[in-house]
Design a protein that fits this description.
The structure is a single chain. The chain has an eight-stranded mixed beta sheet, with helices on both faces. It folds into two domains: 180 residues, Fructose-1,6-Bisphosphatase, Chain A, domain 1 (2-Layer Sandwich); 129 residues, 3-Layer(aba) Sandwich (D-Maltodextrin-Binding Protein, domain 2), CATH 3.40.190.80. The chain starts with 16 loop residues before the first helix and ends with a helix. The chain is an alpha+beta fold. It contains seven helices and 17 strands. The longest helix is centred in the N-terminal third of the chain and has 23 residues. Bound molecules: 6-O-phosphono-alpha-D-fructofuranose. The site of 6-O-phosphono-alpha-D-fructofuranose has 10 residues, from loops.
Length: 336
Amino acid sequence: MPADFNLTYLDSNMQRLRTFLDNHCDNPDLVAVIDGLMVACKDIAYKVQLGGLAGVLGSAEQINVQGESQKKLDVIANDLIKQALRIMPQVKGLASEEESDAVACNPEGEFLVLFDPLDGSSNIDVNVTVGTIFSVLQSEPGADPTYEATYLQCGREQVAAGYVLYGPSTILVLTVGKGVYTFTLDPRVGEFYLQREKVRVPATTKEFAINMSNQRFWLPEMKNYVNDLLLGEQGPLGKRYNMRWIASMVAEIHRILTRGGIFMYPYDSREPQKPGKLRLMYEGNPMSMLIEQAGGKASTAYENIQEVEPTSIHQRVSVVMGSAEEVDNVIRYHKK
Ligand code: P6P
């Protein structure tokens, strides 16, 4: 252990999340929403860390609106976030992957919070990283928070986006439109501390993430692109790539924000009526805002994800995001 490694005391000038938000974010009501949301996320982190000891693993024995079987922690995380948001006067309404309809909170509120309470939860029983993804929109004055239309704003309208990663460390990654910042939770004191400022995604990469088992169901353009990735130096892309697939978008995007890469969940013909697996409003849009704020790109392969006009809260979208030059390669293959 390096001599200066000191577990006992925090460096006194480490910046707590609330201090950062007060200095960085122009809207104190948005600060309150983010700070309050983190109360729920710290509780989720605690329950994820306890796992089996808290009896929170395994199936909840129920199916959600997505038609997916819910894990106990999906339900617990959803309930914790709902409880936190509903008591905030700044929050007018919420929409969740685990809620079939939008939930009205406080009529005087300004903000709408859309979230995936526990992304990657199929991994929770095998102790692999999961996370909470959130997107914050502003509500038109007088807009009814029980109406789906109130939430159907394109990604460009987001005023904040982020995720909390429940991994070896619990890390908040956040943007309020002025760059991407990361904060690590010190569980000893229950505080998030600023770690990285103005995160940048490298423009190029040799690492791609896609579920190869769906290859036969992709469009020809995606098949051609991935085939060329696999040709390595001998192929038209001219370099040897490596592959990762964690089956937890939040973990894949964190890797890309940390060292670059490209993450893809493209359209596939397994369920032709669905344009993709991932959800636009609380996965595609918030992750796209983070990636673009860090200098990367986020596309459906045909258009910028944050320009997709939403038609329903739970609509799905094809996702290609990460290092800008690699996303450009995918777009080029889809123009041919
Ligand atoms: P597959 C998790 O269920 C998720 O929504 C994303 O976090 C992840 O990238 C993807 O689905 C994994 O999908 O088909 O590999 O299980």
